[in-house]
Amino acid sequence: MGSTSLILLLLLCIVFITNNEGELIEKFQDKMKKVGTDNFGVNVRQFDHEEMMLFPNIGVQRKEGDWRLNLHGWRFQSPTKNKMLGKLSSAMVERIARLVASSDQMVYYNDTFQRDRLKPFMVQDKTNENFFIMIGTKHNYTTKTDGEGLFRTSFIVSNADVQELKNDQVITYKAVGNNADIWEGKIHLLERQGLSIISGVDDTIKISEVVDKMRLVANTFIHEFRVVE
């Protein structure tokens, strides 16, 4: 097994343990929340630490003249217990990386693993959860996450409303979670006719060095992202 495969395998093991423990804890927490709400009238959801990541998406004008606005996001929770696990996992992966790296590759491991980049592997998906989408003041919708905490949906909005809402070909919208937490996303508008450039990221926009897997891991989890010039 290669050194990079060993590091990735360790990450997968940590994620597997985290997710399985998280499911059991979530069931227990849900039970306690129900007891607190039903028996004591306490709004226990206010103590949840849930987050949402709204991915940049596009809106396209249809032949009818109106617009289809596409939205895509991820709802997850960062349990307190995973903070310590995140520190432990980053330290373990860093130690193994230093052990298996060659002398030429060691220069790429002079810094520590950035825990914020490991964080997406440590969180708990919030499945089948309802929340609101607000596009301006006229367009309010309800949607829900799937079995992996993701949602992907689209809405039809008139051209007149789009022209009113857009700012430099971008429409900003808000997603409101069931804890009254508010997150902001962006929709980039594409006219029916025009020129679009579609590009990859690794070694096209961002330096990743995908040919050398050890350097790829370092550029993904350790170093500051660098732009290809």
UniProtKB/TrEMBL annotation:
Keywords: Signal
Signal sequence range: 1-22
GO molecular function terms noted in the UniProt entry: phosphatidate phosphatase activity
Signal keyword on record: yes
InterPro entries: Mg2+_PAP
Name by which UniProt lists this protein: Uncharacterized protein
Species of provenance: Adineta steineri
